[in-house]
Amino acid sequence: MTAVSRLLIYVLAGFVLVLLQMHAGYLFGQTGIRPDFILSFVVMLGISAPLCRGAAICWGCGLALESVSCMQGGVLQIFFLGVFFLIRLTKKFLQFTTTVHVMVIVWCTQLLKYGYLLFLFSYVYNYEFVFREMTRIWIFETILTVGCSPVIFAFLRRLTGDRKDPLFDQRLMHHGRCTQ
Amino acid sequence: MLQFLSRNKRPLFLLLVLAATLTFFARDIHSTHTPTIFNRLFVALLTPPLRITAALRDGATFMWRRYISLVHTQRENELLRTQRDALLVENQLLQDQVRENQRLRELLDFRQRIPFRMIAAEIIGSDPTSWFKSFMIDKGAVDGVMHGAGVIAPEGVVGRIITVASTSAHVLLLIDVNSNIDAVVQRTRARGIVVGTGHDRCRLAYVLKTEPIEPGDRLLTSGLGGFFPGGILIGSVVSVSHDAGGFFHHIEVEPAVNLSKLRNVFVVVPEQGAPR
């Protein structure tokens, strides 16, 4: 698979996941708590995508989500880029060989997300509802996100054509150079 | 210069992405969410596939209801006929009252109420995050939808339009933490503001402890602000409590509309040329 077609697949996958996330209300209730598919996608990009293209797609995903939600500008862009760089920096020390490993990583990023949002909502945007409400949302959203992450990973692996490899093989892990 | 750019293209690209992100963050830090050209571009890109997927989803639901779930149709049909007859009688009585009310207003030389028209819209996607309560509808500026317009369903108030694209718009639900709607209590005419809490219920704020509010009281739109006509049901009071030292009641409100199962809404816009 060429670098350009891989990039196109990543962009398409991001687009499909944003659409899926917007329709998740149909399954989880229009106003209900839903899994964060994009977070799993960003974790996968952090593990397998080249630096520049991965960063650009993470930024695009954040911007797309902010465009169709009430979230203030930049919040999700910063977070997704942060997660992407963090995973790239730490991936040499972490294991991504089994589904359980990946689920643990997604759980950690979900924890990180709520720490970050709790700080922003309490001290920067001064929302009243924050602590009690966010704890409730965090518990359910984390269960759903972590539960759905293996499906998302399997879907993305199928798209990128890495069917025979273990979940994230060494070839993908070291494919980090920008070839643009 | 070109050599420098080509040698450092990776750090420069990452710097550009980071700078763009921080610009977006700084822009919205002390203001409400205002769409940029990039946001508009993404909304324009996402709207057509959202329409298609919403149509597919509705088609599947329709098929299910039409062909598989026909078990109670006969009984439902009879019930609906009975309800329709009752509503027709009620409608005639109400029309008489409206005419009488108009006549009396003319006699008293009251200012005429702002005329509104309603634009039917379908929900094509909901907020992708779990913290905010909003959704997208398939009508936008070209259909006459405007920023701030009220959104209602047959059961009552749904929310307000916060951003408008050319063929879609974004609705902030009344249960969202950023939502504020001016309301009156139907029984006592006490005024307050219905504020979203971020979960299934709202609260009625700024109602003095001296006001006799009880569970079950119905809240209506006040008509102030010009975005909602007066008298539309918002919800009903579920519980009332207050602090010993405070001035106001703590009033919990159950919205009249079941927002989690909503599919179609009406956008209420003032008639063209009407005073705002």
List keywords for this structure.
heterodimer; A: 180 residues; mainly alpha; Arp2/3 complex 21 kDa subunit ARPC3; 73% helix; globular; disordered C terminus; B: 276 residues; alpha+beta; Thrombin, subunit H; 3 domains; six-stranded antiparallel barrel; 4 helices; 34% helix; 27% strand
List the helices and strands and how they pair.
The complex is a heterodimer of chains A (180) and B (276).
Chain A: H1 3-28, H2 37-48, H3 51-67, H4 75-90, H5 99-124, H6 130-160, H7 170-173
Helix pairs in contact in A: 1-2, 1-3, 2-3, 2-4, 2-6, 3-4, 5-6
Chain B: H1 2-7, H2 9-28, H3 37-68, H4 73-107, E1 116-126, E2 134-137, E3 150-153, E4 156-164, E5 169-173, E6 180-185, E7 191-196, E8 202-205, E9 218-221, E10 233-241, E11 250-255, E12 264-270
Antiparallel strand pairs in B: 1-2, 1-12, 2-5, 3-4, 3-12, 4-5, 6-7, 6-9, 7-8, 8-11, 9-10, 10-11
Globally, the shape of chain B reads globular
Beta-strand content of chain B? 25-35%
Count of DSSP strands of chain B: 12
Could you state the CATH homologous superfamily of the largest domain in chain B? Rod shape-determining protein MreC, domain 1
Tally of individual domains of chain B: 3
Rounded to the nearest angstrom, the radius of gyration of chain A is: 16 Å
Mean pLDDT of chain A: 81
CATH class (first level) name of the largest domain in chain B? Mainly Beta
The total tally of domains of chain A equals: 1
CATH topology of chain A: Arp2/3 complex 21 kDa subunit ARPC3
| Largest interface in this structure | A-B, 53 and 60 residues
What is the strand content of chain A? under 5%
Q: How many helical elements of chain B?
A: 4
Query: Using DSSP, what is the number of strands of chain A?
Result: 0
Q: pLDDT under 50 segments of chain B (min length 5)?
A: none
Instruction: List unreliable stretches of 5+ residues of chain A.
Output: 164-173, 175-180
Share of helix among residues of chain B? 25-40%
Give the class-level CATH name of chain A.
Answer: Mainly Alpha
Structural class category of chain A:
mainly alpha
